[in-house]
Amino acid sequence: MTAPQNTTMMETPPAAQHTNSADAILRRLATRAMGLTGADIERIVREARLKARRGKRAIRYQDIEEGIRGNRPPVPYNLRWRYAFHEAGHAVVHHALDLGPVRGLNIDTGEGGYNLVGFHAWATDTRDWYEHMLTMLMAGRAAEQLVLKRVSSGSGGSDDSDLARATRLAFNMERTLGFGPEHPLLYRPHRDPGAVFERDAELADRVHAKLEAALDRAGTILRRRRPTFHALAKALFEAQAMDEMAVLRILTDGDPPP
């Protein structure tokens, strides 16, 4: 028979409550503002101050949030779900591989989703870390494949896209980081991997194989953590912007027991 346990509940002092509330508001605003430039934010704050002045009151958090959201067109329903699954895929894999904290997720930009993640400094620079990074970068595409059964061009199309970053990373593993099977001790940088691939089909095949393996690993992780993945995607779809604490609550609920 288990003995009754005494639980001590500690009330947060009013000053701490105010600090926690202010921190939460700042985190929410920072998450909402992902994707905006400094000039965008300055303009939004200026307009919010003007609105408050006209109302003869102090500026409110809601004024700034409304300014951020009013600056963006509403995201169509189906596209919003795609963004939510894509960004939730990145976050779940990032957490599962213990790469670092997930600072925030946002699908309210009108220009695709954003994720802000951190990295543990002690874990970087090994071959395993680079393979984990490739897996995380390919996780958005893997999430779309898993749930929607087809992928969009959202993973690629620009020099800062998931596919571009993953390709450069796999290219560097082969040519500059000493992890390739061919002449691993030679440092062979190049500013344009695409030009090298056109001349070296074998290198292109090896890099593509790395990306395929990373995509498969990401899909495996998402299938194993499907309830967490779906819970995070649903929460992100509804909230459209989630700060670190909101994301972490869902991710840790799905962690396997020690």
UniProtKB/TrEMBL annotation:
An example Gene Ontology biological process: cell division
InterPro entries (alphabetical): AAA_lid_3, Peptidase_M41, Peptidase_M41-like
Record domain Peptidase M41: where: 83-247
Keyword Membrane tagged: no
Domain AAA ATPase AAA+ lid: start-end pairs: 26-66
Gene3D superfamilies: 1.10.8.60, Peptidase M41
Record-level Gene Ontology MF annotations: ATP binding; ATP-dependent peptidase activity; metalloendopeptidase activity
The keyword Nuclease is annotated on this UniProt entry: no
Organism domain of life: Bacteria
Sorted UniProt keywords: Cell cycle, Cell division, Hydrolase, Protease
EC number: 3.4.24.-
Protein name in UniProt: Cell division protease FtsH
